[in-house]
């Protein structure tokens, strides 16, 4: 077995809650028909309160949250869905797998869907926009909301990287029609694998619950089904992890912010394009990752700099090395259509902000990167 160098995001609190709820006097079952177990329902209620919406529906992942959200809209087959050029591939695959038409939109200086490009590319068949709050930074929701209102579009927020981020006082996932969250291990809070959909619409919440569990109509034990659906129900253990993680999210996000702020301070004045402050007048970021863009001049030495950073053993990722439309199934027919997405992916590195990085390590990491960059800045 290869040795894992990462610390577990879970501790004794999660373990004792699982023992209490699943191995105590009145043990909960590992799972319940159609995702209706007591801990699952409790997690949904608590997450809805945390985000500030009426309804939250658990699911198996951020990917299935996106799939269910799109499927719940009952869109005609030829519907077109707008998606930003930069995100994790799951955002685009949800559209692709449901066989809707996808149109990629370029990103703005915050790596989020650019409202100006949305305006340019909307067509008669456009029915929804998936807005990703990439790296934890909320997208320009005022502009997106305005466009959506004018064109009668549904907004799905992909908040898989932005648990707890706020835009003008509202949490991401509560601003559009539907919010999608991932609880994968590396996310701001985790249930191992897992996901959640948030909404204020009773109609959409009910539709999503049906779709999530094969169209199952009620929880009494009669097997009647109202239509097609999936089995995307969460397990009891995941929900218990989620309940405990939710009690830690403020602290976890605060720790990420601390690391983000250290990177930002130590990497300024270096010909690097850094993300905005963690808290601005209108937004607070969930600081999921710290993206660093190289200026055009530095980009000429991108490969050499990345090699040097690797050689120093500095933990980092290239998230993402390509816009989503470069994946073979999108046939790269969008080349040239989203120039900023292409440019950013060729000149980005992302630093981790999670609890595996202590403030002292963040200081060392940023100082080491600064020293490497200085060699290339003339
Ligand atoms: C922006 C974004 N969307 C969607 C997903 C998919 O979430 P999951 O891995 O839980 O399916 C992720 C996960 O990495 C993500 O970062």
Structure description:
The structure is a single chain. With 378 residues, the protein is α/β, with parallel strands linked by helices. It has two domains: 12-245, Aspartate Aminotransferase, domain 2 (3-Layer(aba) Sandwich); 249-376, Alpha-Beta Complex (Aspartate Aminotransferase, domain 1). The protein has helices at residues 12-23, 38-51, 62-71, 90-97, 115-121, 141-151, 202-212, 236-266, 296-299, 302-311, 339-345, 359-376, and strands at residues 55-59, 80-84, 101-105, 126-132, 154-158, 166-167, 170-171, 178-182, 195-199, 272-273, 283-284, 289-294, 348-352. Strands 1-9-8-5-4-2-3 form a seven-stranded mixed β-sheet, with helices on both faces. A three-stranded antiparallel β-sheet has the order 7-6-11, with no helix packed on it. Strands 10-12-13 form a three-stranded antiparallel β-sheet. Strand 6 (166-167) and strand 7 (170-171) form a beta hairpin. Helix 1 (12-23) packs antiparallel against helix 8, helix 2 packs parallel to helix 8 (236-266) and helix 3 (62-71) packs parallel to helix 4 (90-97). The protein starts with 11 loop residues before the first helix and ends with a helix. Pyridoxal-5'-phosphate binds at residues 61-63, 87-88, 90-91, 132, 158, 160-161, 182, 184, 195.
């Amino acid at each position: 077995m290869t040795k894992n160098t990462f610390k577990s995001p879970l501790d004794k609190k999660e373990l004792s809650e699982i023992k209490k709820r699943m191995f105590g006097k009145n043990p909960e079952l590992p799972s319940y028909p159609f995702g209706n177990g007591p801990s699952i329902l409790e997690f949904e209620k608590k997450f809805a309160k945390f985000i500030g919406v009426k309804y939250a529906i658990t699911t198996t992942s951020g990917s299935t949250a996106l799939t269910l959200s799109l499927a719940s809209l009952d869109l005609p087959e030829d519907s077109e869905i707008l998606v930003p050029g930069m995100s994790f591939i799951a955002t685009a695959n949800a559209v692709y797998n449901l066989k809707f038409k996808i149109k990629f939109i370029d990103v703005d200086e915050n790596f989020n869907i650019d409202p100006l490009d949305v305006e340019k590319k909307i067509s008669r068949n456009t029915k929804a926009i998936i807005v990703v709050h990439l790296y934890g930074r909320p997208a320009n929701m005022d502009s997106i909301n305005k466009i959506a209102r004018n064109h009668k579009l549904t907004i799905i927020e992909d908040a898989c990287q932005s648990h707890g981020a706020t835009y003008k006082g509202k949490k991401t996932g509560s601003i559009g029609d539907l919010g999608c969250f991932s609880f994968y291990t590396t996310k701001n809070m985790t249930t191992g694998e897992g996901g959640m959909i948030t909404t204020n619409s009773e109609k959409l919440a009910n539709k999503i619950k049906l779709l999530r569990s094969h169209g199952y109509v009620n929880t009494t034990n009669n097997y009647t089904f109202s239509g097609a659906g999936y089995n995307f129900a969460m397990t009891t253990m995941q929900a218990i992890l989620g309940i405990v993680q939710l009690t830690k999210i403020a602290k976890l996000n605060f720790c990420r912010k601390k690391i983000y702020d250290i990177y930002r301070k130590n990497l300024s004045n270096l010909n690097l394009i850094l993300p905005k402050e963690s808290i601005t007048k209108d937004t607070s970021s969930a600081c999921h990752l710290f993206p660093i863009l190289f200026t055009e001049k530095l980009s000429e030495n991108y490969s050499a700099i990345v090699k040097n950073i690797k050689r120093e053993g500095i933990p980092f990722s290239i998230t993402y090395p390509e816009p989503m439309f470069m994946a073979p199934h999108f046939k790269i027919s969008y080349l040239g259509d989203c120039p900023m997405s292409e440019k950013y992916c060729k000149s980005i590195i992302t630093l981790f902000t999670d609890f595996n990085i202590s403030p002292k390590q963040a200081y060392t990491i940023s100082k080491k990167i600064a020293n490497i960059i200085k060699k290339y800045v003339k």
